[in-house]
Write a structure and sequence with these properties.
This protein is an alpha+beta fold. It has four helices and four strands; from the N terminus they run ααβαβββα. It has two domains: 73 residues; 91 residues, ATP synthase, E subunit, C-terminal (hypothetical protein PF0899 fold). It has a four-stranded mixed β-sheet with strand order 2-1-3-4. The protein starts with a helix and ends in a 6-residue tail after the last helix.
Length: 198
């Protein structure tokens, strides 16, 4: 009977030992699976984090570029407005001085000199002179300068002063108006002033 008890105890110990070994093997396998799953999750989490970081950096760069671009556009717009303000101020002052000049005795001499210049350009061929309405008072004085001046007429497009000569035969026109000179100066100034905004 004692042998049976010993065999039973031996079998029980053997079963418990094998159970412990299997339990250890299972625990090791579970631990290995857990470690593998943890590493896999860690790698996936790092990939996700890297991707998210990259996306956020790209978005930040895009936003920064947009802000810089908008800032540059706004700055350029302000510079253009300021440049236009300066140019307009300069040419408004020039226009005012030219308007004041048309009320002086020197302006009458200017008109005589410009008429002579036009007649020389036409080789004293027949010519019609066009002036602003306020300068029609100079009509007789201008007609006396050359027998080839057939008429002095009003041209509503002349706002500041000066005159336009036209040869009716060749249709050649010479513009000696202050309006034309001011316009040309403004165009020259715009090209050569160095106030170009990039």
């Amino acid at each position: 009977m004692q042998n049976i008890d010993q065999v039973f105890l031996y079998m029980k110990d053997e079963i418990e030992r094998q159970a412990r070994n299997e339990e250890q093997a299972i625990l090791k396998e579970v631990q290995a699976l857990e470690d593998e799953a943890y590493e896999s999750m860690k790698i996936e989490a790092k990939k996700d984090a890297d991707l998210r970081l990259k996306q956020e950096l790209e978005e930040m760069q895009s936003n920064a570029s947009t802000e810089i671009s908008e800032s540059h556009i706004e700055r350029t717009k302000k510079l253009i407005d300021k440049r236009d303000e300066y140019v307009n101020a300069v040419f408004t002052a020039a226009r005012d001085k030219l308007n004041a000049f048309t009320s002086t005795d020197e302006y009458q001499e200017f008109m005589v000199e410009k008429t002579k210049k036009i007649m020389n350009m036409f080789n004293n061929a027949e010519c019609v002179l066009y002036v602003r309405e306020a300068d029609l008072a100079l009509r007789d004085k201008l007609l006396k300068l050359s027998k080839n001046i057939s008429d002095v007429k009003v041209n509503q497009n002349i706002m500041i002063g000066g005159l336009i000569g036209e040869n009716p035969e060749s249709l050649l026109v010479v513009d000696e108006t202050l309006d034309f000179a001011l316009k040309n100066q403004k165009e020259w100034f715009s090209k050569n002033s160095g106030l170009i905004i990039k």
